[in-house]
Amino acid sequence: MRSSTRPPRQKQERGLALIGVVGLLLVFLVFAGAMITQLANELNSTKMATVSNRAIAAADAGVHAMVEQIQTDLDLRQPLPTSPITYAYPEPGASPAAESYSVTVDGPYPAQGLNYYLITSIGTYNNGIENISRRVRAIAKGVPISDYASFSNYEVNQYGNPVWYLSSQHFNGPVYSGGPMRIAYASPSPTVTPIFGASVQTGNVPVWSPCDPTTCGGWSSVSAGGSGSFSVNSTALSLPQPQDNIAVASYAYEGDGLMATYPAVAAGVYIDGSTSGGKDAASTTSPIDTTGIYINVGSSGTATITSTVSGNTDTLKIYGPWAGAYQVTINYTAFNSSGDCSGSTTVTHGTATHTFSGTPCGAPGPGVTNPGNGAIFSNGNIQLGNGGQRDTILEGDYSLVTPDYSGYANDITLLGNLFYDPGSATYDKTALWANNVILASNTITGLTVDSAIIAGYPGESWSSGYFKNNRCNKTGCGSGSQGILNINGSLVENARGAVGEVIGGIQYGFARVINFDSRFATAPPPFNPTTGALQIIAWEDLGQ
């Protein structure tokens, strides 16, 4: 008789298979659960990163909003905001989310003649569920007008004649033009040096010759950085304000920027004028030099200045509507890269003489506070050089300034070269700031001007505010070439004054070469005005 019962072994095998399947299912379930958890975490992390990025974008918007506010306040001569600037803006559409910022500013913090501002901004993103804040901090600095190798509002000269940028000219620093620029570049070639070696900003589309370089493929001859470094936009930059100009007079006479009018004193040369009760520099008893040099010649007068250097002694002789000359002898005990130009200053006029502790140089020595350093101001015209000494050599850190605003338009005239002292040229800095800066001699061949040059003020017409060669008139620049005019610094002018011209391939007057002094971008000559723009130089994410 046969049994129908299956062997026990088959039951065991089936049980083992079931256990294996269940085990595998459990493994798959655990793995799937882990994947779902990881995916949820990643989705949540991505969402949180997006929310956090929205918050940091709002914080960055606050930084830029404060930069705009500072620029506006400076332009209107108003104080900086003392309380936070806040702004909230909803997202477009029906989204319930909103972003906002709250931003504050500390400063200004003066350094190297420029103002720095510390900006802190908190950005927030809130959609009713997530509410995330991020905090950032940035430093903005004023942009000195000497940061431009060439700066002009009008592209005509003082006679209304259009001026061209030629392939024979080369600018190795930033260029600003109110426009329209007229640019005649050479045929594209690997051997052609571009006209512009750095960035260009202009307010209008240029007039091109032979044609638009984007069409003709000529950007390599126009700009070393190509079309990307050539910006055409409507953002206008400003020439120095009248308040900036008269502030230099105040620093020169009383050591601060608070004076609103020129002092009612006798014709003469003054150091520590207000401290010494209006006595001139040769007659005062003031022990310490805490200002620059103020020269009173009257609005129609001219202060003629000569300067020579021997060793560490710079001797200035200042002539005006008085008998003889004021001799200002500046004896430096040190003049070096750390900005130390400490020493003594002796002023002699006739039988009167006085010695100050300290120098009027624009960089005080260690531990010395002298806010008026570096200001040499004449309330009339200035002529550098005379019939017996045409070249001017300066040692130190100075700005020579005359009145330049409506109703007060005075000039600076150069009779020869303006040199830094060869022994300290690495540290010397000079600025010339006037209504017009004029090269006077028709017989000069080859000329060097070591300086940042500023001519013009906001709102001035195209017929004034320029750097010019007296040899040039409306119809030409005389006969023959005067060689190369080297400007070692920068040139800022309202209109592009005529210094030379090329006719039929022949040079008449000067061929102008601007060798941009890169030091002026971060450490300009004293009291060098700014463009009104601020530049963000540092940015830090401080987290939540």
Which structural traits does this protein have?
single chain; 9-stranded mixed β-sheet; 4 helices
Task: State the gist of this model.
The protein has 544 residues and is an alpha/beta fold. It contains four helices and 35 strands.
Task: Tell me about this structure.
By secondary structure, the chain is α/β, with parallel strands linked by helices. Among the domains are: about 20-145 and about 535-544; about 240-440, no CATH class. The protein contains 4 helices and 35 strands. The chain has helices spanning about 10-75, 215, 220, 240-255; strands spanning about 85-90, 100-110, 115-125, 130-145, 150-155, 165, 175, 180-185, 200, 205-210, 230, 270, 295, 300-310, 315-320, 325-330, 345-350, 350-355, 375-380, 380-385, 390-395, 395-400, 405, 410, 410-415, 420, 430-435, 435-440, 445-450, 450-455, 465-470, 480-495, 500-505, 505-515, 530-544. The strands form 6 sheets. Strands 5, 7, 9, 11, 12, 13, 19, 22, 27, 29, 30, 32, 33 and 34 form a 14-stranded mixed sheet that branches. Strands 18-17-16-15-14-20-25-28-31 form a 9-stranded mixed sheet, with no helix packed on it. A 5-stranded antiparallel sheet has the order 1-2-3-4-35, covered by helices on one side. A hairpin with a 2-residue loop joins strand 2 (about 100-110) and strand 3. The N and C termini lie far apart (about 85 Å). The model has no long low-confidence stretch (mean pLDDT about 85).
